[in-house]
Design a protein that fits this description.
There is one protein chain. The chain has a five-stranded mixed beta sheet. It has a three-stranded parallel beta sheet with strand order 5-4-6, sandwiched between helices. It has a two-stranded antiparallel sheet with strand order 3-7. It has twelve helices and ten strands. Among the domains are: 135 residues, Ribulose 1,5 Bisphosphate Carboxylase/Oxygenase, CATH 3.30.190; 86 residues, 3-Layer(aba) Sandwich (Rossmann fold). The protein has 350 residues and is of the alpha/beta class. Helix 6 links the parallel strand 4 and strand 5.
Length: 350
């Protein structure tokens, strides 16, 4: 037995180093923790586990080695330093002000009270009182006096009605023939086939076509102001809804742009037929001429628009139909109309 050393005569470090731990005594789940991060947790799990035994050799301490213990003052100083550092970090987080959220879109626009008007607008705004109601002739003269830009402005009417367009019986969409015209050149396109193509050309249509014109529109061609279609072309025009609908160019029977009488529709739009509809807030926006018209011409067009809105009153409208009425130029302030005088006013003969 010369090859085997007697453990009893070996020194303790030699005995411990010769006895290697077996796999069953070392648990794979007890991986050593980082001593710098979790020193107490590693020792706690190692000693409390029922099957845990030291997997590394333990070298006993020399008996004559002195035990080094930290001074109580050093421990207290370290604890005080850590507590002060933690308190400072907590206070810094608590007192840090949150970053303001960056506004985009309409929210980024200045509020109405913070907006500034131009000197031109502030001067012409003094021509009329803010909340005073005027009769039709006086309002038309104020509208023309406020239009002092370098281009010819349009005359606009804005009627607030007591209707809610989300209900089917309170929707308003119609057309009106302005006796004095709109003052603008209207470019009319016609979608038809057969003999009606020659009829549209003779009536003065600017663009006439069939399936080839539909393909051009799908490719992005939009060089027209009104699009008139015959009823037999509507199944083919339906594919253009996503392109023409948002631009207000989709042919519609209520707007008079889907008809069998192509020549009459072309002449009416050339002379000054205007389509209008109520928006989601119950307001009708309508252009009834230009500021270079005579006072009588603007009055006639305005009263034609008022009569059309009154005649096409929705069946579901309850109570007071007219809430307010204003007219203005494109770049000028609005002038409030007296509704009762407006409805009773008789315009001069055309």
């Amino acid at each position: 037995m010369a090859g085997v050393a007697n453990p009893s005569i070996l020194s303790p470090p030699t005995v411990l180093s010769s006895q290697k731990p077996t796999a069953s005594r070392c648990l794979p789940s007890l991986r050593p923790f980082s001593s710098s991060a979790y020193p107490s947790l590693a020792l706690l799990n190692l000693h409390l586990h029922p099957l845990a035994k030291p997997c590394l050799s333990i070298i006993p301490r020399k008996l004559d080695a002195p035990i080094i213990r930290p001074e109580a003052s050093d421990v207290a100083a370290a604890e005080a330093y850590l507590a002060a550092d933690e308190a400072a970090s907590d206070s810094a987080v608590a007192t840090a002000s949150p970053q303001p959220k960056i506004k985009t879109g309409k929210a980024a626009l200045p509020l109405k009270r913070d907006r500034t008007r131009s000197k031109r607008f502030l001067e012409i705004q003094k021509l009329r009182e803010n909340k005073k109601e005027y009769d039709v002739p006086t309002a038309i003269s104020l509208l023309k006096g406020a239009a002092n830009t370098k281009f010819v402005e349009s005359a606009e009417a804005h009627f607030r009605l007591n209707i809610d367009p989300k209900y089917n019986d309170q929707q308003l969409r119609a057309t009106v023939n302005l006796p004095k015209g709109t003052g603008q050149t209207i470019k009319v396109a016609v979608l038809s086939q057969g003999e009606r193509i020659d009829e549209a050309k003779n009536a003065g249509a600017d663009i006439v076509g069939g399936e080839e014109l539909i393909e051009q529109i799908k490719g992005g061609f939009m060089d027209f102001d009104k699009l008139i279609a015959s009823p037999d072309m509507m199944p083919k025009v339906a594919s253009l809804g996503k392109l023409l609908g948002p631009r207000g160019l989709m042919p519609n029977p209520k707007a008079g742009t889907v008809t069998t009488d192509i020549s009459q529709a072309i002449q009416e739009f050339k002379k000054g037929k205007v389509e209008y509809r109520v928006d989601k807030t119950g307001i009708v926006h309508l252009a009834f001429g230009q500021v270079n018209f005579t006072d009588e011409g603007l009055i006639v067009n305005l009263m034609a628009a008022v009569r059309s809105v009154e005649t096409n009153k929705p069946s579901g409208a309850k109570g007071v139909y007219w809430k307010s009425a204003h007219i203005c130029s494109s770049m000028g302030p609005s002038v409030r109309l007296n509704i009762r005088e407006m409805l009773d006013y008789k315009p001069p003969e055309v």
